[in-house]
Amino acid sequence: MVGYAAGGGADIVARTIAPALQQRTGRIVSVENRPGAGGLTMVESLKNAASDGSIIGMLPSTVMIRRLTSPAAIPIDPMLDLAPLGIIGTFETAFCVSPSIGVRTMAEYVQWAKDGPPERRRFGTAAPETFSQYFAQLLGRQYDIALEPVPFRGTGPLSADLGAGRIPAGCGGLASFVHQHRGARLRILATSGPVRNPVLPDVPTVVELGFPHLQLIDWYAFFSPSTLPSPLVAAWNRQLTVAVERSDVRDQLTQYGVIVGVTKPDECSVRLATDLIRWRSLLDMLGIRVAN
Questions:
Q1: Angle at 59 between CA 53 and CA 61, to 5 degrees
Q2: Which residues pair with residue 267 across a beta bridge?
Q3: How far apart are CA 178 and CA 188, in angstroms?
Q4: Where are the alpha helices (DSSP H) in 4-143?
Q5: Helix/strand/coil for 80
């Protein structure tokens, strides 16, 4: 299961891996999209799924931040209600603009936004109240502009509206925008990484822009219900490792800006706990009160 509509980064990554998993397991592996509530509809379904290993879910780490901002809206604790099967790769968050506004750099975008009406400060986000939204707002704050988030039902619709000029800017996982950037259907102006992504050597990072405190690397991971027996958790991790490390799968994921590397389940838990602490500091910069 994927908690977002078809065509977005999470969906692309899941569909890249699924055929290799099918070959490894000898079982039919299908991808089911369960969009809604910024990925949380799928998370709730996964929490209550059968504990026989037949259903797993792929999540980008960005969705987990809502545990801090809206705990009442999130009926699960990712540290308790889900069992990590392993991180399969990392990625950056990307801030991009529509080619219709005619800017090529963050400095040009900021000037364009400041010189016009408030509508110019709108940006699309496919996952409200996630790091994708907060990254854009934090980036805008560095330039003394208050950017206004507009929710979309997936990065597919967001990319389409950016290409058509219906919204001036957008923010989301890098994998969602790489090919549109190459095709000039949108322009990525900055990423959240510490160094430039190898597939986008023309795109600067927040470190280069002078804001190293905003850098953050996100990740894609597979999870199961917490009730999945440990032998099945270990078995899924083995299958994912072999499938993702296949040269054809690795090459495809790399072309979408994903830095491939499968972890053990316990390493995923440690990374999530560490990121929850990091997210608190970033939310504090925006003055957003977090849950204890």
A1: 135
A2: none
A3: 8
A4: 9-25, 40-47, 66-69, 106-114, 131-142
A5: coil
Rounded CA separation 105/187 (Å)? 9
pLDDT in tens, 40-78: 788 889 999 999 999 999 988 887 777 777 766 666 777
- With CA atoms as reference, report the closest residue to 140 among 154, 120, 158: 120
- Rounded to a whole number of angstroms, the CA Rg of the chain reads 18
Q: How far apart are CA 79 and CA 82, in angstroms?
A: 6
Report residue 110 as tokens.
């900021």
pTM of the model: 0.89
Give the C-alpha distances (Å, rounded to integers) separating 156 from 173, 175, 191, 247.
Answer: 12, 11, 19, 27
pLDDT, one tens digit per residue, over 150-191 is 998 778 889 999 999 999 999 999 998 999 999 999 999 999
């998370």: which residue's tokens? 43
Q: Could you identify the residue written with the tokens 């979408």?
A: 256
Rounded distance between C-alpha atoms, residue 213 and residue 83, angstroms: 31
Tally helices (H) and strands (E) across the chain.
10, 9
Q: Which helix (DSSP H) or strand (DSSP E) does residue 241 occupy?
A: helix 230-245
Selection from 140, 146, 150, 147 nearest residue 190 by Cα: 140
CA 170/CA 162 separation, integer angstroms: 7
In contact, 204 and 196? CB cutoff 8 Å? yes
